Amino acid sequence: MELTAAVWSFALVVGLLTLTPGLDTALILRTALLGHRTRAWGTVLGIQTGTLLWGTLTSAGLTALLTASRLAYDILRWAGAAYLLWMAARMIVATSRTKRGDEEAGPETAPAGKDSLAAGWRQGLLTNLLNPKMGVFYVAILPQFIPEEMPHLAMGVTLTCVHITLGLVWSATLVGCAGVLGAHLRRPRARALLDRATGGLIAALAVRLAMSD
């Protein structure tokens, strides 16, 4: 496979993956819709840091352990599911406080409560790294797009950077759209509905991850 063809083919595959609604999209949108643009960008950067780590580890051959060791995969899978359930529970509990009229308690106790770049980065990074499917995806897909004559590690990291670039462009679109709609969704009732919907989605993804083989 020629270098140019490999890059464009990989970009098409990960581009479709990036556009598919999922946990990353839900987290970025929810955080940005609450008006926490700094934290939203922190979440974006954390997610992309995780992607870079997965791509680098895969290129170095380390993430093959996830496919070779059932124990390693299960430990990461259960840790990821527990973290997602914890996030979902915080969001849903916060909606009950908002419902009682405590307008400040809801967002401050929710994961997007503090508009901090570092807090968003930690949340995005943990969410990405505790998802073993990211590792398995890279183990299955990335090597297929690395030409035999190219250095495996360098080419793998280059392709990962293509994925990160597409992710940043899509995330910028999400944050921009959220900025337009955010004023209408930061009212107490709308915020509670947003948190219930996002918390429910994250809980469902956690259960799906826990039950996956």
Mind telling me the C-alpha Rg? 18 Å
N-to-C span: 32 Å
Tell how many strands the DSSP assignment holds: 0
* Low-confidence residue ranges: 102-112
Tell me the fraction of residues in β-strands, as a range.
under 5%
N-to-C SSE series? Answer: HHHHHHHHHH
Q: Into which percent range does the helicity of residues fall?
A: over 70%
Number of H/I helices: 10
Global mean pLDDT:
81
Number of domains: 1
Secondary-structure-based class equals: mainly alpha
- Major sheet size, sense and barrel closure: none
Categorize the overall geometry: globular
Can you characterise this structure?
There is one protein chain. With 213 residues, this protein is mainly alpha-helical. The chain has one domain (3-211). Helices cover 81% and strands 0% of the residues. It contains ten helices and no strands. The chain has helices at 3-19, 23-33, 37-59, 64-68, 70-99, 105-109, 117-129, 132-141, 152-185, 188-211. The longest helix has 34 residues, at 152-185. It is globular. It starts with a helix and ends with a helix. The model is unreliable at 102-112 (pLDDT under 50).
